[in-house]
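Example 3.2
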Amino acid sequence: MKLIPLAAVMVSVASMMTVSDVIADQSNEVSAHKQTNVSMHSRQIAIDETVVTEHKTKVNGNSFSYTATVGTQPVWNENGDAVATLSYTYYQRDNVRNNAKRPLLISFNGGPGSASVWMDIGYTGPRAINVDDEGYPLQPYGVKTNPYSILDVADIVYVNPVNTGYSRVLPNKDGEMPSKDEQQEMFFGVNADIKYLAEWLNTFVSRNERWRSPKYLIGESYGTTRVSGLALELQDRQWMYLNGVVLVSPTDIGIERKGPVKAANRLPYFAAAAWYHKALSADLQNTDLTEFLPEVEAFTINEYIPALAMGGFIAPDHKQKIAEKVAYFSGLSVDAVLKSNLDVSTRFFWKELLRERGQTVGRLDSRYLGIDKQDVGDSPDYNAELTSWLHSFTPAINAYIREELNYKTDIKYYMLGDVHPWDRTNNKTGENLRQAMAQNPYLNVMVQAGYYDGATNYFDAKYTMWQLDPSSKMKDRLSFKGYRSGHMMYLRSEDLKQSNQDLREFIENTMPKPDIAAKY
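Structure, written as tokens:
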């Protein structure tokens, strides 16, 4: 939809006015000024529009031009009424002769309630946030060229679900907003989210003539729940088949990790974070991270989980032995592990690991350090990493959209929006992803995770991947990539390069040759 300047509209209207109209207006001027037209001053987002800009970039040494489209597209209910509008940013490489061979990557972030900003200007997009090589804020705030963006091999659309970015619920034809319960039923739950987004994507793909393109979904954090569910929903309800799904820092995607498994699976992450902060014994510190983590993982599976499964009936000497090993790998004291009954919580770990140094470690990325009001206590005062990220991302995305992509609005960009309470019942997204893979021999899955992520830890990600297909018949279509950073591994310069390259290779390797049929 082409935007028409308001001034042009006013000129057009004014040209149709007669002299008598002007006189009538002048005679009613006083009374008109006494009235207040609220609708003329309401802050609203355009329901259906696009703003297009042209750009150039350089990726892996190759220069090319691309088109960026920022827009909104409605969500319609079964009656054809617009009930919400979703904002998105769509990047297309120019001079592509045949987009039937050009992959389309559909990108979601998580939360739920998080905007698409993180992977747009943090990870795969043509512009990257201005941070230092480890991901910490720098001024002046803003973006720079992302020399590793996958835009060289795929077009990308970043989608903001309802109440994130500029996306909003819409009033009905009478100007009334749906109730909180009605909004939850339509948008704010595992299955409602998947259903309306699948419908929205059908429209987007149709409008942009991408039905023949190979398609990929990528989701980060809760976005992995979203894309896992979408894989089957798109196939079964929209008849849209995918080549790949990428799970970045995945949640459990409905695959249960409870009790001893949930507790024990934290240990490899504890070991990685402690190693980074040089809180382990000399023998472990002198061993490279990826060399000793397999030992921690083996202990977790073979000894730690069975010990926790014994609960209060574990023999005292065995409990002591396990506590010593957990302390050895985690950097905590044996006493702290024993007083936790071998079940060390993540919040306690973030507070305890560097307590003697007067510092806490971050939740989503434990490389980040915080300082609390008091060194006592069992959890940090705040999440050191999230405050750092909001510090740099918020001004950058607002300036980027307005100044470079030329999208102007008074609507607030919701970095983190209100989508709660979120209905988490009947979460079968992992099983749905498995079913989608079974139904579609072209569909491959890659998992990406940071070793220092304490929220969705890398070993949980591995465990989820292992459990995704118990038959092992599709394990050759599942792969895992680990990085020396946290939840948003791409903020570390070295991992920005590697994670994009892994994603690039995943896309290239899952594009079947013309004579390779989808069959078993």
